[in-house]
Every structure is written in structure tokens, then in C-alpha cells.
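Researcher: We plan to redesign the surface later, but first we want a full-length starting point. C-alpha cells attached.
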């Protein structure tokens, strides 16, 4: 296994406090107490965490995926709980051809209830109106790009599907921001669950080996993370992981930030 498959396990922050009235109740209309939920989730394995969310929110629970390097793990977990769970894929229109083919392979393999979220602006129209926002070297332009192509389409899909709680495969060792995340907290008026938060790349690798899950085709070419064609690059011995995104200007696309609709899967 290559060096890029090893990271230090990230601590899982705890949360406390009474239920937040701004966040949705469970499927029975009962408020979620974050401290109680976290105590339960911290003792559970990732599969049990997904099952907790599905039992708590039913049809209002969804998974977001990028069909990236390590996406097969969460897709496999969700498929074991219920194949009816919506899997929201934000297709920016700028993904690698290998990602589109990998998405097709995993969708068929796991029988996913795939929900594709796309921006109202086509890539050509966006470039005509706003330019090639990823080429300017401006963090503000990258934020606009992520808002138009990722955050707003995801929010529209979640509104359409009436999502109350969504899970993702983020892990604490990926970025500085993710090291501060809790297993469960509120993001843009919905519950956000991170079942793999404390996992390392090694954990992911061995899970995929154990369950014979296919790797993203670009993994063999040195990619430890894959996003848009113009946003990700293979590890080069000095830069790796999400530090390769957008030349290191911006690691987070906004999906996992609390406010980047004004602020920010």
C-alpha cells in the first residue's frame, strides 16, 4: 500500500446542549438531542451510524457522494441499510471521464437510488457570463464557482427530496476544517452525519479490500482525491490529498461548511 494511504486518525469532537429548534425533528416529530445522539453514535460503528440515521429520519435521510476515490465505502454501507435511500450526486459538468464511468459502475453494482444534482447554468453559459472562475487565482471566484456548481444544486436537491439528515464520507484527517467536525451537527438547517469521521486512509483501504470494492480508476494514477478536471491533481511527492485541490488555494468546496450559501459534499 502506498504512503498516500496513511493518515493519522482524527479526534471526534463532542457536542453538547439542548435540541436546536432550527434543526428538524426525527420522523416521529421528536426533537433530536445532539448530546444524547452523539453519545450513542460514538459507541457505534459506521454501519450502525447509518442505520441510526435511517431509523431516525426514514425517507428524509440521504447520502451525498462525489464518486471520488473513497466513495465506494459509504455507498456500500448505505446499500446494506436500504437501497431506497436517496444518493445525491452533485455533477458539476466538469468531472473526469473516469468519474462518470465509475459512477455508472457503482450505481449498477449497489442498485443505488441515484439523484443527480446539477446547476441551472450549463458550464458553457456559466463561463460566458462569469468566465473561467477557477483560473483567476482568486479565492472569491472559487467560492462563487463552488456556490454555483455545487452548493446551490445540492440545496435544491435536498429541498426537492425533503431531506432532514444527510450523511457524507468526510474524514477528520482530510482538512483543517474537518478536524473540528463532530459526528453529527447542523449544517444549513439540516442534520449532517459523518459516519467515517475518525477513519484513516488505511481504514478505507482495508475496508475496500475486505469487501472487494472497486477503486476509482484514477487511484492507480496517483490521485488520492478526485474532483473536477481543473481542481484536482495526482500527488506529486510534496503535495497530497486535498492540498492538491485548486493549486492549494481552497480545500473546501463549501458543501460541508455551515453557511456558504453565503458560505457553503
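Model: Full-length starting sequence:
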Amino acid at each position: 500500500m502506498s504512503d498516500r494511504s496513511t493518515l493519522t486518525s482524527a479526534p471526534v469532537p463532542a457536542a453538547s446542549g439542548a435540541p436546536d429548534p432550527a434543526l428538524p425533528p426525527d420522523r416521529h416529530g421528536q426533537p433530536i438531542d445532539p448530546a444524547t445522539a452523539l453519545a450513542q453514535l460514538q459507541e457505534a460503528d459506521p454501519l450502525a451510524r447509518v442505520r441510526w440515521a435511517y431509523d431516525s429520519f426514514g425517507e428524509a435521510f440521504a447520502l451525498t457522494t462525489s464518486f471520488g476515490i473513497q466513495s465506494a465505502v459509504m455507498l456500500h454501507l448505505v446499500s446494506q441499510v436500504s437501497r431506497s435511500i436517496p444518493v445525491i450526486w452533485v455533477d458539476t459538468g466538469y468531472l473526469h471521464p473516469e468519474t462518470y464511468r465509475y459512477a455508472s459502475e457503482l450505481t449498477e453494482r449497489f442498485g443505488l437510488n441515484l439523484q443527480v444534482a446539477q446547476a441551472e447554468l450549463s458550464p458553457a453559459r456559466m463561463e460566458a457570463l462569469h468566465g473561467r472562475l477557477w483560473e483567476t487565482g482568486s479565492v472569491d471566484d472559487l467560492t462563487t464557482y463552488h456556490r454555483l456548481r455545487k452548493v446551490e444544486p445540492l440545496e435544491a436537491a435536498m429541498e426537492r427530496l425533503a431531506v432532514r439528515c444527510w450523511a457524507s464520507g468526510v474524514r477528520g484527517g482530510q482538512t483543517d476544517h474537518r478536524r473540528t467536525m463532530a459526528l453529527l451537527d447542523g449544517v444549513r438547517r439540516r442534520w449532517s452525519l459523518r459516519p467515517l469521521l475518525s477513519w484513516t486512509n488505511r481504514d478505507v483501504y482495508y475496508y475496500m479490500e475486505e469487501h472487494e470494492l472497486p477503486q476509482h480508476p484514477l487511484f492507480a494514477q496517483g490521485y488520492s482525491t478526485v474532483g473536477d478536471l481543473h481542481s484536482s491533481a495526482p500527488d506529486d511527492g510534496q503535495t497530497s490529498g486535498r492540498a492538491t485541490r485548486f493549486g492549494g488555494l481552497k480545500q473546501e468546496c463549501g458543501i460541508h461548511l455551515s453557511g456558504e450559501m453565503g458560505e457553503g459534499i
